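Recall that a protein's primary structure is simply its ordered list of amino acids. Everything else, from secondary elements to tertiary packing, is in principle encoded there. The following example makes that idea concrete.
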Amino acid sequence: MMTRQRRGGARVVAVAAAGMLLAGCGSSGTEAGKEPDPKPSASVRQAGESAEPSGTPDPEKPEESEKPGKPEETTEPGALPSAYEFTPDPARVPKNAAEARRLTRNAALGESDWSAGMVKATPYESGGTWPVLADTCVWSRTALPAGVLDRFTRRLDVPAQGGKGRVQGAVTVTVHRTEAGAEREIKDTVQESFRCPAQELGGGQRLSGLMSLQYDPKDVRNADASLFEAGKYSGPGSDGVQDYVWSKSRIGTVTTAVSVKGAKGYQTVDLMRIAAEGGAKVLYRVELELK
């Protein structure tokens, strides 16, 4: 038990520092995604501001900070949101496969949507199947489960140039029938990396040293839930073992996933910026589909 606890603690520490960039993606227009905050209306005090109220407190009235369950707020322009408050319009939430396919195609990033210079990969699009990680830690695909309306992926790469290799990116959008089903996907994903820190993707592709972390909901400002995963990737054309980052988020019944497989000349922080940009943009597009 002690060995497992130590390993789990090491995973959290190792991933937490790397993942914070993705946890806040979309919360500020100055982040890698360069996207406006989808829900800028809610706010909290900015870092470094005093939490003390101005003026003299009334001894007959309890201070606001002493009232349980009421978070501090400020209306000062530019303040960060205290929590994610977006609520999908029930009329816009997909209720059948056709509506789900329309959302996934509209929300998934295309060639001109992610980052300047990215190009279509081969294959470019795929969908209609569900990935399954066997006890042998080998991935396979099956038909969509009854609780999933659609799952769609687009692949976009940063071409090899300037002595650097080709970075492989992918964006996946999945629509579940219920929020509980979408949340279960998030929970299962975290467990998969603990169960299988090394995974076979097929076609000679391999992931190793995987570490996952699901963020505390209070730290997520552009989704209902988010997680981050990091590790190593190797496969045909990878020029050895490279860094690998992956994030998954949920808005209502919809989950989004962004993966980036590294290449020669790229550091983990470079991949994180690419993933953060893609993650912020696809979440914003999901909101547009659901509002």
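The chain has a mean pLDDT of 80. The helical segments are 2-23, 97-107, 179-195, 268-290.
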